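=== RUN LOG ===
request id: a7f3
mode: sequence -> structure
chains: 1
length: 159
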Amino acid sequence: MTLFLSTFENKIDKKGRVSVPAAFRAALSSESFQGFVAFRSYKFPAIECCSFSRMQRLSQSVDALDLFSDAQDDLAATIFADAQQIPIDGDGRVILPKMLLDYAHLEEQIAFVGRGATFQIWEPKAFALLQAKARASVKEHQVTVKLRNDLSPGGGTRA
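=== RESULT ===
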């Protein structure tokens, strides 16, 4: 399973390129597409990113919804119509489309934020504010998680 951990900040250079953290490149290295898929978050002023295989699983999940239902149509328009395949060049850099940069208010610095099976790209100060609120909420509500016993990506138990 692809796993994205930690937060990394990098500068956008004058040509609009940004280095993808080495740990994220390593996590993506087993994929057939050498890059990632990116689309506007519908929840945050951020860019949602995942491996191509994760995007295929997301597509299958949306396909499982009722055909032509409002939910299926809305999710397809929100996610897939907006999604961009972002190739990583030989030097480990990407160029993000202007539409995505504008949406997330990215100009000089980018925060790559690991979220387990996915990652997000944020304006660093905006993410710092969100992270502080999230930490306070977890503490206030004493949120916990039950550790799953299965390890397979589809949720079933491994043989």
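=== NOTES ===
The beta strands are 7-11, 17-19, 35-40, 47-50, 84-87, 93-95, 109-114, 119-122.
The chain has a mean pLDDT of 93.
=== END ===
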